[in-house]
Amino acid sequence: MPVANAEVAVLIVGGGPVGLTARALLERWGVRTLLVEKHRELSPFPRARLVNVRSMEIYRQLGLDAKITAAAFAPEYGRVRFRDTLRGRDFATAAMVGINAPVPESPVIGVVTSQDRLEPTLLAAADSQMRFGVELVGLVEETEGVVAFLVDRQSGEETRVRARYVLAADGANSTVRQRLGIDTAGPGALGGFTTVVFDADLSRWCAHQPAGVYFTPQGIFAPLYPEGSWAWFIPTPEDAAQADWSVLLARALGPDTEVRAEVLRVQHWVMNASVAERFRHGRILLAGDAAHAIPIVGGLGMNTGIADVHNLCWKLAGVLHGWAGPGLLDTYEAERHPVAHRTLRQAVANTHLMVQVHNRRREQLQSGEAAPERIELPWSERYFAQLGLVLGVAYHSDAVLTDNVTPPDPPDTDTGTDYVPTAEPGHRMPHLWLERNRSTLDANGEWFTLLTPDPTRWEQQPTDSWPLRVEALPDEHVDRCGLRPGGAMLIRPDGHIGAHWRDSPLSDSTLHHALSTITRSAP
Q: 192, 383, 460, 490: which has the fewest C-beta neighbours closer than 10 Å?
């Protein structure tokens, strides 16, 4: 048996947004973690560009939404624009719903921001130990834990850490996933791309028509920070090693523009499209890009990973604190694996639609006829937010009770662009105002929440073994939630409805049975 230098409850591998969010969530639950990141610092590249409305709800729960919003772009940047050149007029545009303006379905609004602006906020959100420049090079699974072999990439020093569980958020080329021999399914690598970060004053072309992304035949342009800097995304040329990026960028901007652009950084990367065949191997769990690599169009990748750890961390905390059985962790894959596949399909569809737009425009320009100033997009204005996928995800697992009376089945909302709020078990609790500036989503935390119009009756139920809070549901929301005066909804810590009772409890053990079943325990 390997001798460990240190012991922690959870070892997090990977210091991107997903790993950092998991670190903050687990610290709120009182779980001791160690996060290791093989790079010596946070990424200096923008990478992900969008914090969607569901992710912002999670960050609201962590008290980070105001900080993230303060460093992000104004809502009017929540739009994409299509142009023949960056300096030209829009020939098509679409709003990012839930980003460009508030939506009634949520108490928050998502933002356009760069990953390198988000990560420092997430890093500061927790005090748990974090080691940069440390790479995981081996894993040995034991009955009661996992021994991880770590190497300091600068000094070469090797240490061993024993963890009860390992959470792998180490990217699309996950070392952990590869060492476990977990295959992936899906299209795979879609091609090599290059991000060029540069400074230039492009206000004459863009200030009057702001956007988070400008699609052009010369590449994708995106403003990075409210105070300045841009990113240019293009397929990586064959001679990338010898490329003069200043010259290529000037050509893309237009030789007669008189815009001076200074190239700051260049990064080459591969756009992948795949889902891991399994999200769990014993005490090792995959999340984020390690579990699913999602193409960038539509801004779904990072946000899907954030939702992964929001689903997982309360379950890890329950098992580690003893109020949940180990079987609860089986529901992580059961709930998130289908979501990853649906998200991948949506992102691939987004990519095909982007190509359709440019192909249609090119055909117009090549036809010799006068091209119209605008073309009709092949999707609705709601396409880019995919609210049905973002807010309408429904979980089907042993951590959701369906053996009691539930509301009528709603339309399938997690595969399209529209979102229809529902109080059906498995769905995210709909946003309703409990009082001024306090949403039903704000009732969630490091506990289960019972929302009921009759708190007194339900508070008599014995539930001392689990973290639980009982809150009054205002009368005006009772019918909308499919309840009668004595009914209740049990909300899991991740904000999804675990159980729904239309009427009063059938026995004194109703709530105890529900919590025991959901948490796979018998305290």
A: 460
Report the share of the chain in percent with pLDDT over 70: 93
Q: How far apart are CA 80 and CA 457, in angstroms?
A: 51
Q: In Å, how far are 253, 291, 404, 405 from 505, measured between CA atoms?
A: 66, 39, 10, 11
Distance CA 429, CA 422 (A): 7
Nearest Cα neighbor of 197 from 285, 104, 299, 268 is 268
CA dihedral 415, 421, 422, 428 (to 10 degrees): 70
Residue 117 CA to residue 39 CA, distance in Å, equals 17
Identify whether the C-beta of residue 57 lies closer than 8 Å to the C-beta of residue 106.
yes
Sheet-wide strand order for 262-276: 90-95, 79-83, 213-216, 219-225, 228-235, 184-199, 262-276, 292-293
pTM: 0.94
- How far, in Å, CA of 370 to CA of 39, rounded? 52
Is the pLDDT at 227 greater than 70, yes or no?
yes
DSSP, collapsed to helix, strand or coil, labels residue 494 as coil
Determine the pLDDT at residue 414.
43
The amino acid that residue 54 corresponds to is R
Secondary structure (3-state) at 282: coil
Instruction: Band the pLDDT of 45: cuts 50, 70, 90.
Output: confident
Pick from 295, 218, 294: nearest CA to 257: 218
